Structure to design on (187 residues):
């Protein structure tokens, strides 16, 4: 798990001291990614790396557009030369396409496309099952928490409101895939 270790060390250096709650959240997202390893096979390490690094765009060193998914992906690509697939998963995680559209950043997001649906589903599941401080949460409750945290006039509120059905569908697909993987082991 060299890629995941590298991403862990990078994310820790960017988030642990300056954004400790964000770091705690990222650690839970990483833990959730590890639980999906059997269903992801050879992409398990890529997901683990993306999970721990998914919010590096909040770090002061990475902020550029203000859309943390794009900023994180650009930092990973341009500053540290990360694997393009890792950058893509970070760029497209959770509600990124909806936020990018709201902010007029769809072209910037397209720099990292096309998204890989199975990995985007998985990172979304991991993100939505992790509270802002690193506790395990129900995805629907997590989305409600996000909406409560941001007001209706905020881009994140509008994006998450529009994305909510698809985000919950992603979670359901990941759960189904994990269930099928476990069931096939028992057969």
């Amino acid at each position: 798990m060299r890629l995941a270790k590298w991403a862990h060390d990078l994310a820790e250096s960017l988030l642990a001291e300056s954004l400790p709650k964000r770091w705690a959240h990222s650690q839970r997202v990483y833990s959730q990614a590890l639980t999906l390893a059997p269903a992801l096979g050879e992409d398990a390490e890529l997901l683990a790396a993306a999970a721990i690094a998914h919010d590096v765009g909040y770090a002061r060193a990475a902020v550029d557009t203000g859309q943390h998914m794009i900023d994180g992906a650009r930092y990973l690509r341009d500053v540290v030369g990360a694997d393009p697939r890792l950058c893509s998963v970070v760029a497209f995680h959770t509600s990124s396409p909806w936020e990018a559209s709201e902010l007029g950043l769809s072209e910037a997001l397209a720099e990292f496309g096309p998204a890989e649906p199975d990995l985007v589903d998985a990172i979304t599941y991991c993100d939505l099952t992790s509270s802002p401080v690193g506790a395990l949460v129900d995805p629907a409750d997590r989305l409600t928490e996000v909406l409560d945290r941001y007001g209706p006039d905020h881009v994140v509120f509008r994006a998450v409101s529009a994305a909510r059905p698809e985000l919950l569908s992603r979670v359901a697909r990941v759960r189904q895939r994990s269930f099928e993987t476990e069931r096939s082991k028992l057969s």
Residues 2-186 form one domain. Residues 155-186 form the longest helix (32 residues). The CA atoms of residues 67 and 152 lie 17 Å apart.
